[in-house]
Every structure is written in C-alpha cells, then in structure tokens.
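<goal> How does this chain fold?
<body> The protein record starts here
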Amino acid sequence: MVQIVPSILSADFARLGEEILRVERAGATMLHVDIMDGHFVPNLTVGPPVVASIRKITRMTLDVHLMISDPDKYAPIFIEAGADQVSVHQEACLHLDATLRAIRARGKRAGVVINPATPVALLEDVLGLVDYVLVMSVNPGFGGQQFIPQSLDKVRALDRRRKELGLNYAIEIDGGVNLDNVAEIVRAGCDWLVSGASIFHSEDPGATLAQMRAIVREATSMRA
C-alpha cells in the first residue's frame, strides 16, 4: 500500500507529542524519524531517549533512518528504544550485507539508503536482503530542501528491478516531497513518501496529510 510518511524532522519539538498525535489521527500509520550524528551529515537530531518517548505515545510504525557513521553500533540501540524498522546508508556501511542481516536477526525490517550521487547499481547484491530501499531526493542533513528530479529515475530503476527479480521490497523516497510532486512520485513506482516540511509547516498538518493521501489514491489507481 502506498503511504505518506510524516517526518518529525520538521515538527515543532516543543509540541512533539501533539504533532505526532495530530498526524496519527489524520490517518498516518508510519512515522519517519531521522537520526543524525553531526559526522555522516552536518547536523544533529535526536537520540534513543526521544525514540523511546515517541514509542510510548503512538502505535504508528517507527521508521528510523540512521544518518550516522557507525550504524552497526547504534542500530541495536535504536531497536531497543522502539524502532520497528531501521534503514542504513550504503555509503556508511563497510559490510552492508552483515549490517542488514543483523537488523533482521533482531526481528525488525531492514532498509538501505542511497544518497543522490550513489547509483542504484551498487545495491544489486543486497536487494534480496532488504525489506525496503530509501532513495534520498535531497542531500541528507537538513529538512526543507528542493526535490531532485533525477531521483525519480532511481525509483523507476528499483521498481523495474524488483519486478525482474521477483522481489517485494518497498521503495521509499525522502526529501522535498510535497503536494505538487506526490502524484508523479507514486506513478514512478514509489510506495512510501516521506514528507516533513510540507506537512508540519502547513497551517493544518492533518488536512495537508489528508490531501496528500487523496492524491496518492488517485495516482495509485493509474499506476500499472
């Protein structure tokens, strides 16, 4: 099922619980949580205590995206904090297959992420291991950036490859997703669309989410 996945990176952290509950009431079933360490990306966000606190107030799937230099060390910690699925960057993993297997061994879904300059071809040997692939449609580190149109070529390539291989990994995209490009992204073959600023910086995040979901339903009906 195609989903809009709100990203708390753009939420008001002074009212984080309220913001999360608002999108959950509006129909969101998955919440994207960006973890940044100030090394792999030039920004710092939240740690395990915040994830554990979020886990207590929502039943949404916690989609934890590790933008960190040592995912092998921290993936188990965030799983313990309450992550339902964890994605790691291809660019950060020396032994990517082992990292993905370790996440799945803990009973959680494992995802791999590629930056805008990383080709899809580098994932060929792990596509059979992953539950989802996250395509970054901006350079990671900060919210509110402009969508990189060439990201859709990666989505199409991943969609084509999963059909050729008979696999069922989900395709996720993150960065610059808004009301204007949601339909095109869905038609390219994307399943999970992460959106932060377009939802949480709007006057009514719940209404914006509902509007996005309506566009997704229409675009999904036209997808082959």
Q: What stands out?
A: Strands lie at 3-6, 30-36, 61-67, 85-89, 109-114, 132-136, 170-174, 192-195. The mean pLDDT is 96. DSSP finds eight helices and eight strands in the chain. The longest strand covers residues 30-36.
